[in-house]
Amino acid sequence: MAEEEGRVDRASSGGKEGVSTRIVLRPQAVRDLDAQAAYIGRNSLAAAARLLDAARATFEQLAAAPELGARQEFQHNTLRSVRVWQVRGFEN
Length: 92
Prior knowledge:
The protein is α+β, with helices and mostly antiparallel strands. The protein has helices at residues 27-41, 45-64, and strands at residues 7-11, 20-24, 70-71, 83-84. A hairpin with an 8-residue loop joins strand 1 and strand 2. Helix 1 (27-41) packs antiparallel against helix 2.
């Protein structure tokens, strides 16, 4: 994941030609994802690779359709627009 510098850029299909939505993964998010892949990789390198592939595909989906996911209620104001979306294609 680190080789991508934590960014996923994709053109938005929101009807605005040339407009791009960018997903920026904060360094802690990249570390968390890498840690999960390392943990899973202790038992299966193939499963760890599937997790990273599924996460990358999910980030691309979110870049193309940023309104996906359900809004969550948080007490902290900076989190009021946070949406939650499951990494697809990597079920337990």
